[in-house]
Design brief:
The protein is of the alpha/beta class and 146 residues long. It contains six helices and five strands, in the order E-H-E-H-E-H-E-H-E-H-H.
């Protein structure tokens, strides 16, 4: 796998740092796009930078973290070829890969604690897209976002 992008705002920073360390210990190359502290910042700039990397095709997957995950999800999904999935549980993370071929996992630090985030990230990274009837639907999404 190519390098995984990761980014957060100030509210997601602590979870992002723990998740990044965990993923790196698992042998996954992670490129951190910030933020780099708990100092208040604006989430759109970080979500946009990560989504640009995915949209351009330079990176295949990324993880975004903010307090609710909602803002990051809205920003990321504005770019073509980005399928950002806001997930609060393991089943949703797996289904977002199986059925939607999601390429950005969005986590809300107010709802997903560290241990669950680790499990979700690994499940998401290791779950394959089923294609089949789902491929047609993903193609429809791609047509909408051209």
């Amino acid at each position: 796998m190519s390098k995984l992008l990761i980014a957060s705002d100030h509210a997601g920073f602590p979870l992002k740092e723990k998740l990044k360390t965990y993923l790196e210990k698992k042998g996954i190359a992670v490129k951190d796009l910030g933020t780099y502290s708990k100092e208040r910042c604006d989430y759109p700039e970080y979500a946009y930078e990560l989504a640009k990397g995915i949209s351009s095709g330079k990176y295949k997957r990324g993880i975004l973290v903010c307090k609710s995950g909602i803002g990051n999800s809205i920003v990321a999904n504005r770019l073509p070829r980005v399928r950002a999935a806001l997930c609060y549980n393991l089943k949703a993370a797996k289904l977002s890969r199986r059925h939607n071929d999601s390429n950005v996992l969005v986590l809300g630090s107010a709802f997903v604690k560290t241990e669950l985030a680790k499990r979700m990230a690994m499940a998401w990274l290791n779950t394959r897209f089923l294609a089949g009837r789902h491929k047609r639907r993903v193609k429809q999404i791609e047509e909408i976002t051209k």
